[in-house]
Design a protein that fits this description.
Elements: H1 4-18, E1 25-28, H2 38-45, E2 50-56, E3 59-64, E4 67-72, E5 77-81, E6 89-95, E7 98-104, E8 110-114, H3 119-122, H4 133-140, H5 147-152, H6 162-172, H7 185-204, E9 245-249, E10 252-256
Antiparallel strand pairs: 1-6, 2-3, 3-4, 4-8, 5-7, 6-7, 9-10
Helix pairs in contact: 1-7, 4-7, 6-7
């Protein structure tokens, strides 16, 4: 699933093409990708101008002068500018002679549209870059659960997924099963710094292309070559050389270094 860095890269690649353009129409080719009421609202948006395109968590938001369209790519969705429609094209946004395609082999992607942000977006927690270290610590206080499931919770922090949680925890030297509410101030601040650093580096590298992800121009990311633990079971930790381990946390494959990230 595209996470914050991948979605940010998609938005940046599409921004020069769609901002200021008027939507000619939308062809929904698979009703499964449209949330209830979305298709009707997209019909009303025809002729409206895109004021801006931005990211919120893992959502891509197209803000029109008369409504909003929110797209979540989920597992295998892609947004591609002026690509050729194919068997996996589920929706086509037309802008005059240009088009924005939503391709998704598994049809898990979702399009929301209406006069305001959908509830799925409104319920999101703060953006990582909007939180100070003190604000991050405050959100951890009183939490009884484990740190990895908490970081995956989009109502706690928006945009993080499996890749960047594992990478951030490794940099901060925190075990994925550590109690979130018991992290000391130095460890909580180290985790906050690690999250921001990992996200910034991933965005600069164009995101992580593990399987399906490409940006709006069809370009793959390069951050997967810089992963320290994610997907590297049995390989040496780049910091200490110990073999990276894989466990399951919150039903998600989880990679960590048992030497750098001792459970305590």
């Amino acid at each position: 699933m595209p996470e914050l860095p991948e979605v940010e890269c998609i938005v940046r690649s599409l921004r020069p093409h769609v901002e200021g353009r008027r939507l000619s129409g939308v062809d929904i080719r698979s009703p499964r990708v449209a949330a209830p009421g979305a298709a009707a609202w997209l019909g009303r948006l025809a002729g409206s101008a895109v004021l801006r395109i931005e990211r919120r968590g893992k959502f891509i938001l197209l803000q029109f002068d008369s409504g909003i369209c929110a797209i979540h790519l989920r597992m295998t969705g892609r947004l591609l500018w002026n690509a050729i429609p194919g068997a996996w094209t589920r929706a086509v946004f037309a802008f005059g002679q240009d088009r924005l395609l939503l391709d998704d082999i598994r049809q898990f992607a979702r399009i929301h549209a209406g006069p305001q942000l959908p509830d799925e977006v409104a319920r999101l927690g703060p953006e990582p870059f909007a939180l100070t270290a003190a604000g991050f610590r405050a959100r951890l206080q009183g939490r009884r659960g484990r740190i990895k499931p908490l970081l995956l919770d989009q109502s706690f922090l928006a945009g993080l997924g499996n890749i960047y949680v594992d990478e951030s925890l490794h940099r901060a030297r925190i075990h994925p099963l550590a109690q979130a509410g018991r992290l000391s101030r130095p460890r909580a601040e180290a985790l906050h710094r690690a999250i921001l650093a990992v996200l910034e580096e991933a965005i600069a590298a164009g995101g992580s292309s593990i399987s399906d992800y490409v940006d709006g121009a069809g370009r793959k990311g390069g951050f997967q070559r810089l992963h320290r633990v994610y997907g590297r079971h049995g390989q040496p930790c780049p910091d200490c050389g110990a073999p990276v381990r894989r466990i399951v946390v919150a039903q998600r494959g989880t990679w960590f270094c048992p030497r750098c990230q001792p459970r305590r």
